[in-house]
Amino acid sequence: MAVKQDLLKKRLEEQRVRLQEQISQLTIGGQDHPGYSNHMADDASEVFEQAKNLALRQTLERQLEQVEKALERFERGTYGYCLDCGEEIDYARLKAIPSASLCINCMQRREGRR
Ligand SMILES: [Zn+2]
Question: Residue range 28-39: average pLDDT?
Answer without folding.
Answer: 53
